[in-house]
Design goal:
The structure holds 3 protein chains of 3 kinds. Chain A contains 10 helices and 10 strands. Chain A has helices at 2-28, 48-61, 74-83, 127-135, 161-169, 186-194, 205-213, 230-234, 254-264, 269-274, and strands at residues 37-43, 65-71, 88-91, 103-117, 152-156, 181-183, 199-204, 218-221, 241-248, 278-279. Chain B is built from 12 helices and 2 strands, in the order ααββαααααααααα. A two-stranded antiparallel ribbon of chain B has the order 1-2. In chain B, helix 3 packs parallel to helix 6 (142-166), helix 7 (170-178) packs antiparallel against helix 8 and helix 11 (238-247) packs antiparallel against helix 12. By secondary structure, chain C is mostly helical. Chain C has 2 domains: 2-50; 57-287, MetI-like fold, CATH 1.10.3720. Chain C is 72% helix and 1% strand. Chain C is built from 12 helices and 2 strands, in the order H-H-E-E-H-H-H-H-H-H-H-H-H-H. Chain C has helices at 15-50, 54-58, 72-103, 106-119, 124-142, 149-173, 177-185, 190-201, 203-219, 222-227, 245-252, 258-285, and strands at residues 62-63, 68-69. Classes of the chains: A alpha/beta, B mainly alpha, C mainly alpha. Chains in contact: A-B, A-C, B-C. Chains B and C meet through helix 1, helix 3, helix 4, helix 5 and helix 6 of B and helix 1, helix 3, helix 4, helix 5 and helix 6 of C.
Amino acid sequence: MITMNVLRALGILMAGMSFANLATSAADDTKQPTLAGKLTITGSSTVAPLVAEIGKRFEQLHPGVRIDVQTGGSSRGIADARSGLADIGMASRDLKSDETDIKGHVIARDGIGMIVNAANPVQSLTDAHIIDIYLGKVTNWKDVGGSDMAISVVNKAEGRSTLELFAQHYKLKNSDIKASVIIGDNQQGIKTVSGNPGAIGYVSIGTAEFEAGQGTPIKLLPLGTVAATVENVQNASFPLSRSLTLVTKDEAKDLPKAFIDFARSKDVHDLVKEQFFVPLAE
Amino acid sequence: MAEMAITRKNNSARDLGLMLVVWSATAIIIAAFTWIIGDFIIHGFERLSWSFLTTSPSNAGRSGGIAPILVSTLLILLIAITVALPIGVATAAFLSEFTRVGGRVRQITTLSLDILAGVPSIVFGLFGNAFFCIWLGLGFSILSGGLTLACMVLPILIRTTQAGLSSVPDEWRRGASALGLSRGAALTHILLPAATPAIAAGLMLGIGRAAAETAALIFTSGYVDRMPSSLDDSGRALAVHIYDLTMNVAGGDANAYASALVLISLLILINSVAVTLTNRYGSQRITAS
Amino acid sequence: MISSKSSFSFLWRNDKILGRVLWASACLSTALLILIAMFLVKESWPVLTSIGITRFITDAGWYPLEKLFGLAPMLGATVIVSTLAVLIAAPLGIASAIFCSFIAPRRIAQAYRSLIALLAGIPSVAYGLWGLTVLVPLIGQFQPPGASLLAASLILSLMILPTIALTTDAAISTVPKSYLQGATALGLTREATIIKVILPAARASIGAGILLAAARALGETMAVLMVAGNVVQFPTSLFDPMRTLTANMALEMAYATGDHRASLFVSGLMLTAIVMALATLAWRLSGGRVHG
């Protein structure tokens, strides 16, 4: 009896949806699509929201095109592009020098900045301080010019390109880092630091700037003498930054090429900024 | 549900002790959950509106509504329950009524179901991705997601149905047999109706677990937040949407809380439908004594 | 006495056909586990043959990119956090079922039941979000960093509580009324009736519910990932951060390739092994009669 009702409900829903389908296909007929087909894009969770938004705008311009964005991680994006499972892969890093079998297309840049809780009086940390904190040699803020408070070191989980970039920059080995909290995605880092007065972490600069502006109790520390701002990432003076990259197996052509060209064009700079990344230089 | 009344209330110290434990446990539970749900209402209620339910998300979900996500979620749940309920009830009926207590068939099947219930949801996700999406060629789709969830809730449904059937007294079976009923008739007229509260509880737990699932769906039904036009389309589930907004989208918290409120309300709705069905169905059952 | 309106009995020509249909369903359900187990073994096979199972226990740490594959601390943490969660949730859940069945007036009991059922459906990510923004900072005020074994077991116990409460409630409601009448006739007090008659009669189903809840605690992923701190170590106090096997898979799976990916599947295999051990243990304890 329950099954019958479920089936009936399913039927009603399906009927409703085929009606919605009719409505959209009727709308399609009014325009003449030049490009058509379906594009599957998989990979980095950092890049996915941006590409999904670019995809929506592209679909509006070319009604015959459907762009499906799936998240996973940079490695999966690259693996899927390589195996042909996805037409385009997404990676939140530059391609490595040995990844010559695939083609990378940079669509935006992103900086990585150190954040601490807003209640923390420390205004800046030297590179040596940051290294000592992450190696567990310094465990109290009073040793680096702060108040008497235990340091909670926030680190990223193994395999994330943000961790790779951070560790490379400070010449750290991940197994030597003494972390108190290990996080996954970017926002978990911001939430962890905002909820813990003694925490220190590293996150994407654009999002941290936005969150701090919204009143989230975090602050960005300068790296050496360079302030951690989107502006400094854009003018390339900020040393800790990465490229958001679309990856294809071969030289892109047809639909993938059209999409990649669009994603690199000025037409999407507003979308890039909306997602708190840095557009390519004009 | 059977109502029970204990007429004799004795104010002994032990009875008082039990009452103290029960009341304080209930108070703790209500307090904890008021805290959690209150937190969601405070942060999410502002964003809730009719248009939140009927528009598509924009700007990575920070603004706009959740209409396509709601539709995808409902379709995934419907598929999961439509597939899992008949198989689950049939398996439970087989185990309880057609196998011997302590027999090898029952032992092995029950044991394997216990193990299945403990397989972490992320493993179901990876399995669903490999089996439904790639091997069966269903791709990232609502169908793949629904089937993966069906696998996940199956042990819950079997388990609770079986528990319900096994607590039906054997006299009823003997009675049915004495009346000349076949096993099938006894099952549909007597045993399953008697186990309805347990089946309904299992169904609610199953739907609850399915609707709340993130890890199993991100790899199977996917991330696309467009309105699905068929079951072959990829569709983002509410829980995946909430996860993405809280963990991955700066400034997504307000919509995340609002989406969580919608999910919770949806479950109240499903739940009350289930309770109504149970009461209607339950009232048709034999009244013992 | 039978008042059911619809009749399905014409469908069954005889019991044999019904038995076959039900048997086929049972086979399907059992095949599912075999399918999943095969899949896990297939995916973890490369590291199991090249590295060997012992290194997953004996390696000094978990740094798969530096070829260190020690899963033992996560194994320990998984078992500890799940045990704690069950220890907190089981008494609360059983007490709340007693409240529903025997103490609360009918309407309140029904409202309370709906509340519990709805709690079963709060998504784990919502529990995680609450834990991350409310509970973790709260614990952190006393003992930083706050993300800890304690936070994880509290969140987990809240999550599995509805499972225990609902299954116990259902178990109590299927205890024949004659038991209750018997107890009343014998002049037993309310406390004695509940503790000595009703709960023992519903023992098998309550146990099944607790096992189900324990399994859910072992398999829970997202909420734990958000509040446990995820540092790979044996927790030595309630305030130590720790990482479970599931959180390990969720954190790293999307970012892993090659041996790293395969070793994450070993996490899944290990977890399945624990559940297998638990289920077998429960079966042994009940003397081969798992569920009545």
